[in-house]
Amino acid sequence: MKRFAGWSLASPATLAVVIFLVLPVLATIITTFLTPAGPLAPYLGFFGSGFRRTVLWRTIQISLITTVIALFVGFITAYVVSRSPGWLKSILIIAAVFPLLTGVVVRSFAWMIILGKNGILNGALVGSGIIAEPMTMLYTQGAVIVAMVYLFVPLMVLTLVGVLESIPDDLIQASASLGAKPMATFTQVILPLAVPGLIVGAVLVFTGSFTAYATPQLLGGESQMVMGTLMYQQAMVTFDWVSASTIAAIMVVITIAIVLLMTRMAKRLNPMAI
Amino acid sequence: MTTKLHPALIAFTALVFVFLIGPLIIVVGAALSDTTYLTFPPQGLSLRWFENIFEISAFRRTIITSLQIAFLSTFIALLIGIPAAYALNRYRIQLPGWLSTLFVLPILVPELVLGFSLLKNVAVQFNAPIYLSLVVGHSLLVLPYVVRVISASLASFDFSIEEAAISLGSPPLKTFFTILLPNVRSGVIAAFILSFITSINDVSISIFLTGPGISTLPIQILAHMEQFFDPTVASVSVLLMALTVAVMAIVERTLGLTFLAK
């Protein structure tokens, strides 16, 4: 009876996810194995193309660099925020939430104004005489990475503040009073306790940047094509849906593999987590 | 007593916050400029670019579409997500473990893949109207937020109160509206706001499900940017930011913003 009540309440949402997400996405993946040219042809095509391998490698590279920078910046920031007095903490959290709630397009657009040929940064550098000619900063890998870091640091900070807040001050003070140098307290007390949060943050940032569309499109353009922009181009410009589906399948597999790998790692490192 | 922080850490954090807020201030400045090109600091102050938004019919149209889609998809997600969250908490033992994983899938599966799959296997295959596909896509996108936030507020709800009401003869639906819903009110508000903001800002799903006839605001901004790189985009961005500020003010009033860090 109870089982029936539970299922009937959960069924509308369950059906919605199964019908409109699981089945369509599975269908997209399955079609890549059913092409006339043979089951693995689209994948051989993808990995056989030097250009596409470059795109995949570039996407992985951008995502890894973004994740590492966001981890570093986010961790320090979250640590300071978590140890700030109450009123300041609220202000800082608001300051981190605000960009997070501002859309990807707006946030990427901001970096276009800053990094453009006639942008603010070039203006300031030329104006102050540091460089003679405006530099090309837009449509480079660096531009994509800066904007991605900008996108994901707030997410990392918010993920880590909660984790770091739950580390009691007493523990840190005990470590210090037992003679540990600040660095030792950091590496042997704070860092290990923050590992689950760091892993969650890394997964969010890596998968987010690996599958991003708007930011690489606006700040990287054609020359910095990544998996997301390539997939869009194949689907909506070239109308090569088999190729787009193949890219979709590769993105799903890599995303899910990363999530599984990292959650397993989190469990290994901290059996109490998750 | 809080731990003493090294000055270098404090300085670094201060820089990070300049990095986080600075670009948004630049957008506001650029929107207020009197010039026909994008510049900062603004050259002369003017609101003409804000007027321009409403003179461009494509922006007027997409603002309305975006608001409609956000309301509709949030409403649908609440309608199916609240019972699901309730079932997951109340009947946890009776339901299989994978069910809660299923509701995380819309976050786990890349949005672009979901958008493309909906286009290919629903919109085109079944000749479904694009507007409807857009609503479906956005409802799925925001469903995980609804389920998670409502679950979080149900976690502290004592179900014996509800059982008491039922055993005293209150009909289930009345119990839901008079006992359960008031107790998770803050969760519903938070879920509504998160969903609404997520939907309004979405690019990755919408990019596949919008066309010449129907478009959403972020997609229209992208299209406009390809042709003109003028302060109109900055002023639309400021409108979106103003919406965010309004929403944050509501959250602050009802829940307190630190709630979002949990």
From TrEMBL, chain B:
Annotated localization: Cell inner membrane; Cell membrane
Record membrane topology: Multi-pass membrane protein
Principal cellular location given in the protein's record: membrane
Pfam families: BPD_transp_1
Lineage of origin: Bacteria, Pseudomonadati, Pseudomonadota, Alphaproteobacteria, Hyphomicrobiales
InterPro entries: MetI-like, MetI-like_sf
Keywords: Cell inner membrane, Cell membrane, Membrane, Transmembrane, Transmembrane helix, Transport
Superkingdom, natural source: Bacteria
Name this protein carries in UniProt: ABC transporter permease
Record-stated family: Belongs to the binding-protein-dependent transport system permease family.
PANTHER family per UniProt: INNER MEMBRANE ABC TRANSPORTER PERMEASE PROTEIN YDCV
Transmembrane spans: 7-32, 69-88, 95-118, 130-155, 176-197, 203-221, 233-251
Residue ranges annotated for the ABC transmembrane type-1 domain, each copy included: 63-251
